[in-house]
């Protein structure tokens, strides 16, 4: 399927930033790294990739606003459009030369997520989705969430809030509860990649707490356009507001949500 003008803009920005990340990958000694908070790092590579994406998107769509991980909020003249960008999702992996990290770009129109792109420049896997038009891998293969209906057969991805991060203890209980019901649990270290792989049917489900809009926005469009269901951990559509997310094929949410929620009622 030929890419739309909008998707071409997003792909140009992502590929250019991807080349920058690929150049910096494995060169940790040369990169300036700072600590933003507990287990939260940022490097010159994050900033370089973000600058490229910012300039490319601004050039192609001058009035649009931005919400970017490192720059924060940038108001645009056009109040109806906003890019939501994570220039490097999986910084910890990146700094350890683990080739699992992504660029995540989403577009919001009048408060609705309408397009998403997730790109791993190392595997050269580029995931794209537009509202009502489906989700694709490398412009060719249509994405479809996994069809599994039995929780016992599933492989479920998650993110671990490490020491000092909010939800650390609650997560341990959620993980213990989930492990009793599924065939496998995985953690890639990039929430955007987790969502892309859920859209692609590699993972049956993904849940995580306390994410930021830039970790999830593109992935939400991707999973929805691959036929999946995305909610927060109470089953509502407030992921971007509260940061908690569950993505499944829909059927599995009925089984998995009560399991995750059971951890909230259990004493430490
Ligand atoms: C992180 C990744 C990770 C998730 C963290 C995020 P960053 O984003 O998405 O998978 O578990 O909560 O902060 O900081 O590498 O862009
Ligand atoms: Ca970060
Ligand atoms: Ca992120
Ligand atoms: Ca990031």
UniProtKB/TrEMBL annotation:
Its GO biological process annotations read: inositol metabolic process; phosphatidylinositol phosphate biosynthetic process; signal transduction
A Pfam match is Inositol_P
Q: Which reaction does it catalyse?
A: a myo-inositol phosphate + H2O = myo-inositol + phosphate
Q: What is its EC number?
A: 3.1.3.25
Magnesium listed as a keyword: yes
Query: What's the top EC group for this one?
Result: hydrolase
Query: What InterPro entries does this protein map onto?
Result: IMPase, Inositol_monoP_metal-BS, Inositol_monophosphatase-like, Inositol_monophosphatase_CS, Inositol_monophosphatase_SuhB
Which cofactors does this protein require?
Mg(2+)
Tell me which residues bind Mg(2+): 69, 86, 88-89, 215
Keyword field: Hydrolase, Magnesium, Metal-binding
- Entry's Gene Ontology molecular function annotations: inositol monophosphate 1-phosphatase activity; metal ion binding
Whether Transcription counts among this entry's keywords is no
Q: Matching PANTHER family, A to Z?
A: INOSITOL MONOPHOSPHATASE, INOSITOL-1-MONOPHOSPHATASE-RELATED
**Protein name (record):** Inositol-1-monophosphatase
Task: State the gene name recorded for this protein.
Answer: suhB
């Amino acid at each position: 399927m030929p890419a739309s003008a909008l998707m071409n803009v997003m792909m140009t920005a992502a590929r250019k930033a991807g080349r920058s990340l690929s150049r910096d990958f494995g060169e940790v000694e040369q990169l300036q790294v700072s600590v933003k908070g507990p287990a939260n790092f940022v490097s010159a590579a994050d900033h370089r990739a973000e600058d490229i994406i910012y300039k490319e998107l601004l050039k192609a769509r001058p009035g649009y606003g931005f919400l970017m991980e490192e720059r924060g909020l940038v108001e645009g003249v056009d109040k109806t459009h906003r890019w939501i960008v994570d220039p490097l999702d999986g910084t910890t992996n990146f700094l350890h030369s683990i080739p699992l990290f992504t660029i995540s770009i989403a577009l919001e129109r009048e408060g609705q997520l309408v397009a998403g792109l997730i790109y791993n420049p190392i595997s050269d896997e580029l995931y794209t989705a537009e509202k009502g038009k489906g989700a694709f891998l490398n412009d060719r293969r249509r994405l479809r969430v996994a069809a599994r209906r039995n929780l016992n057969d599933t492989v479920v991805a998650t993110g671990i809030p490490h020491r000092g991060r909010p939800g650390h203890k609650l997560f341990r209980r959620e993980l213990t509860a989930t492990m009793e019901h599924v065939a496998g649990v995985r953690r890639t270290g990039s929430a955007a990649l987790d969502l892309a792989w859920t859209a692609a049917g590699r993972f049956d489900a993904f849940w995580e707490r306390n994410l930021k809009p830039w970790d999830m926005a593109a992935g939400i469009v991707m999973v929805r356009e691959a036929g999946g269901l995305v909610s927060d951990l109470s089953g509502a559509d407030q992921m971007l507001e509260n940061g908690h997310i569950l993505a499944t094929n829909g059927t599995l949410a009925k089984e998995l949500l009560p399991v995750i929620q059971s951890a909230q009622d259990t004493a430490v």
